[in-house]
Inverse folding.
């Protein structure tokens, strides 16, 4: 393309966007309720920006978690228009702003305040699958080497940021708080298929329990919800397969 | 965040207990596997059954007491029907068990729903098996 006069770049236009947020303040409210807020936003703004605007300019009592704001800390998982997403990775232009955008806390974990839930049950399940390297034999005197192929085997699971989007999108987890949930199984998968790890047997035994992988109904909610694009349902199926071919 | 108890009318559900049942069993593994295998077998058994009973040789019009008596005098059809009965009942019961486990919230409700399910399934399986094996073509 020859150099011509640059096409004029249209200045972005801010539009009023309405948010319906499910509020719950334990000091005042007996039950959660919905409240609407309207803020001017650019199409390229994130939902997190909107929440910060609401908190900063309209209602300072709005409570939500956020840390990095760039989709890597996993703090701001919430249910936006009925789907679990990270508020910092959801852009206004990808939502239908003709209707109010609903924002609520993720489901299946005890609600503490507004968009904040108690993450402890989620981390309990995570801890239960031993999410750390369990080595074999003596402490090595040099690095534990691994081939590129062996590393690729469990690559998907290493992307997890523990935001709980998958676990709290799982209908089995909603109704049965004892189920480990997809995130814990992904964490287990990441070590079960690591060639340097020797704890696979132990982890498989844990996930073979009544509340383990067999409760998965392959509804794929977890795969749809994952903001990191992890094939969560596939990871769960791999653990099931490992259990079956080890035992049968 | 403060860890003291919040005053007021708040009821935050207790997090699940961190202790997990220490029972080691492969029951869930086998029931999962059974669902897959029995499902595949049932596709052939049930579709075959429907084809034979309703489509081939004049179809549903020819079914009467004599037809049933004739079929059950052959061990082949006895085994076919018996397999269909057992697999379908166990497959369905296991599916219902799963649904009850998923959706019954109180332990008591869960227990009694499952008891009801097992009794109903056991009764149907026993009755069906009894009929297949003790069917008397000379009755009536």
């Amino acid at each position: 393309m020859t150099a011509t006069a640059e096409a004029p770049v249209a200045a972005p236009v801010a539009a009023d966007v309405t948010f319906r947020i499910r509020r719950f303040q334990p000091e005042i409210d007996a039950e959660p309720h919905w409240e609407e807020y309207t803020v001017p936003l650019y199409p390229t703004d994130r939902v997190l920006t909107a929440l910060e605007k609401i908190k900063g300019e309209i209602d300072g009592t709005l409570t939500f978690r956020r840390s990095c704001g760039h989709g890597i800390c996993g703090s701001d998982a919430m249910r936006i228009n009925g789907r679990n997403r990270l508020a910092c990775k959801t852009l206004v232009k990808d939502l239908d702003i003709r209707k109010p955008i609903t924002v609520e806390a993720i489901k299946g974990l005890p609600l503490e305040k507004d968009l904040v839930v108690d993450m402890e049950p989620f981390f309990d399940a995570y801890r239960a699958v031993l999410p750390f390297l369990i080595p074999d034999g003596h402490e090595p005197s040099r690095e534990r080497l691994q081939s590129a192929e062996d590393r690729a085997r469990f690559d998907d699971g290493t992307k997890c940021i523990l935001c709980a989007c998958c676990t709290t999108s799982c209908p089995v987890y909603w109704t049965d708080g004892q189920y480990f949930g997809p995130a814990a199984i992904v964490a287990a998968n990441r070590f079960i298929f690591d060639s340097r790890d020797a704890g696979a047997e132990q982890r498989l035994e844990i996930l073979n329990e009544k509340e383990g992988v067999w409760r998965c109904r392959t509804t794929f909610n977890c795969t749809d919800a994952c903001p990191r694009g992890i094939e969560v349902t596939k990871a769960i199926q791999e653990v099931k397969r490992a259990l079956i071919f080890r035992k049968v | 965040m403060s860890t003291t108890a919040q005053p007021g009318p708040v009821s935050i559900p207790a997090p699940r207990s961190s202790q997990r049942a220490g029972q080691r069993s492969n029951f869930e593994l086998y029931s999962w596997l059974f669902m897959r295998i029995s499902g595949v077998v049932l596709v052939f058994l049930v579709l075959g059954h429907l084809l034979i009973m309703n489509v081939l040789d004049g179809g549903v019009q020819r079914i009467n007491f004599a037809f049933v008596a004739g079929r059950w005098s052959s061990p082949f059809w006895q085994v076919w029907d018996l397999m269909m009965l057992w697999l379908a009942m166990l497959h369905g019961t296991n599916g219902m068990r799963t649904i009850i486990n998923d959706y019954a919230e109180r332990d008591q409700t869960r227990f009694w729903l499952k008891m009801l399910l097992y009794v109903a399934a056991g009764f149907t399986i026993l009755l069906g098996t009894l009929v297949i094996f003790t069917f008397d073509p000379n009755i009536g």
